[in-house]
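Two proteins follow. First one:
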Amino acid sequence: MVLSRDDTNPIYLQICARFKTAIAEGRLVPGDRMPSVRALASELGLSRGTINLAYQILAEEGYVEFRGAAGTFVDMRLRTPEKSGAPPPAPRGVLSEQSPNARPFQLGLPALDAFPRKTWNRLVSHCSRQLGAGQLGYPQLTGLPALRERIAAYLALSRGIACQPEQIFVTAGHRASLGLIMRALYRPDDGIWFEDPGYPVAREFLLSIRARLHPVPVDCDGLMVEAGRRLAPHARFAVVTPANQSPLGVMMSMERRTALLEWAGESQRWIIEDDYDSEYRYNRRPPLSLKAMDRGERVLFTGSFSKVLYPALRLAYLVVPQSEIETFERACRAASAGCPEFHQAVIADFMEQGYFIRHLKKMRALYADRRQLLVDVMHDVFGDRVTAISPPAGLHLAMQFQGYRAPASQIAALAQAEGFGLQPLSLWHMGPQLIDGLLLGFTNLESREMAGSLARRLKDICIAAGRERRA
């Protein structure tokens, strides 16, 4: 490796450039081991700090990955270059992350390009070095104590929930939280109020275990409690997303919250509060959670790390009333093997050292910008034929399209065939559909050029769908 102190670029950037060229030309391929910091520093006559800095930059840019004591390797997610020696250009409008889930306008996916991988990898390496015989046995069924403590502290600060770590159960995702609740408390033939429109993943899971769901309409104030009383007066559960209704983004009004808590207290009913995207409101703070307002211990609070960190973790949590801890512990012993503790330990460190709060603050600002970018670009491309109907919140936009002959479901079907990740509102409905529209994720829109390219492709699809319907 030839370096020059006369070059205008500092030495560490020259090292970065040499490795990038080697990767682009195929002399280094994904999975190849990089020279150790000590060896390369000795070979070039430089300090190890200079080499470390170059490797850190390469890691942040996605060229290399650290594997603890095993060393540093060319990142496996890089595409292998063509034999011509030139790296293949990324197609216009395609997300830069090589994730099979990161489709254009994909819902439910955080910004993959903005995750603090450098910090995360350092904590992973630290936890790996601390791994001892005590961590190699079976995991604790209710979750790692350190993580339960950190979740309790975070909920007290952010959601006004006063709970003990013993009330928190760490689960393998939102469906696992629902499954634990059903095993612990659900009785055959219990009715469940379910928001309409509402989260289809939760709906399909509950239907798969033969739960009796009753769709209850949602308006600008959230779940219509009086409609629920009329439609399913004997229901024993209600599944709600009061902080950020899924998918419309509205907040449940204080009047409705009070009415729902009164309903639950009347006949020992249960409210399952899904704290869906509560972290992401861009023009105001969400009100207190239902759990924080609950004086009768009728609220079961669920949260997840999938959208605030990343989905591959498959970790969520459930907060239960103090009086029900033993009931849920029995359900855990009967049906759960616990969750792997390694990543629980990493999350606990991430939270304890203050990175979690800083990450959320950074993401709120980034998502507010990307949401506005999508609104602006859609209006530039579609004009007055498109309207955003969801408030400034969450990780997607609900939009209505006017002047196209095809319904949103047909547009969505064509778009999905073209690789888009958007969804029609009809997918989220159980009962009669009152609103027709599309749901578009904006979290991974990295530039105006990308957003514009995708919007223009979507407009072509809308026109094509109208032609198909007319034919």
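Second one, unrelated to the first:
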Amino acid sequence: MYKRSTLWTLIMTITLTFALAACSSGGNEPANQGTGGNTTTNTVDSGSGGEGGDVTLRLMWWGSQTRHDLTMEVIKLYQEKNPNVKIETEFTGFDGYWEKLAAMVAGNNMPDVLQMNFGEYMTQYAGKDVLADLQPFVESGTIDVSKINEGLMESGQANGKLLGIPLGMNALTVIYDEQMLKDAGAKVPDMNWTWDDWKAAAAAVHEKTGEYGTQGLETGNIFEYYARQNGQQLFNEDATGLGYDDQLLIDYFQMTLDEQEKGTYPKLDVIMQHEAIEDQLIVHGKAPFDFRWSNQVVALTKAAGRPLKLAPLPGPDTAKGMYLKPAMFFSISKKSKQQEEAAKFIDFFINDVEANKIMNGERGVPVNSEVRDALAADLDETNKMIFEYIDMLGEHSSPIDSNFPPGSSEVLAALKEVNEQVMYKQLTPAEAAKEFRERAESTIKRAQ
């Protein structure tokens, strides 16, 4: 775990650095995180004339089709520059990813390089002792982190080891269709909008168009924000239990249930029909709001084919709830026989300017300061908006919570399950809050 003060210093450094670079040039899953449960496996043909095949790396990540396509381009570039390396790839949606990884760990068949998430999943896999300590590769210079802030590097540490190299930084955001809201006479979000404003705008769009007023909310991340904006936390400070009053979760469940009853909030069967980022309701003009991570805006906007805007989550006390986070990490399997080559690939991914121009901020604001400077002059309008949003949150957010206890991934899965039971009216909000607390505290106690 890293200290909050250190990460807060990092956040200000990164956002201010990029802002200066952008100015000088004149000029980047859960909230829903992926393409559903499908898995795609590929071997990249670099097209090079090299002998190839001397080293084979397996690489796995979660994400959208856009992330997949861009990552494959970066891999092709790496293979062109390293013709002795062949990279076999697998990608899937966020939920399917963790199921697949768990099966791989159980079967002793992990990929060499894998995407890893901050918080509950880093805690879980650190506890399983299946990730390699990357500090020796940093010390040898194989992975050059000299242009990455120390605080951000600390976010990849767990159990006294460096288990992940950060790939970017992002934040929760509300993506909205400004034109759809204006056509319905609804208020456009600003820095001071509230949950009541969200509900009123959703109702106005639904009444005017007959479409939904919002996409559904991903309970884990959004309720964590909801607790923070109300001066509480999902987990308590010493990571031994929950950190909020049950009434808060009851209120959250009731809010979303009420919106579903009004027809402004889609039922779960509709949400599950639109799991892929490229198939979200806002893409098809069937809802004006979508809640997700800022690094997913590139894929969402590309799929929509029209301008979308960003706002922080609804208030009051938005700054207390909002936070910036490491977007994700690359980790290396502890049992990989190709750790040196895996480390070289990670170094290339975070430090090569050409590779980062291909990725174009899809995994969040680049972590290497020189890469950020190089990208600043050529940002498209979508990435410029994303980077400015991250910069704005540097002054309007609070330190991230890092107090995820062992078993927290199971806890968050339980939260998702009881939320579904509320939306299907199998449990009342009060019954669901009680059941979740019992399950969560039992899980945490068992995992201590």
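SUMMARY FIELD: The chain has two domains: 4-171+325-393, 172-323+402-447. The CA atoms of residues 74 and 355 lie 5 Å apart.
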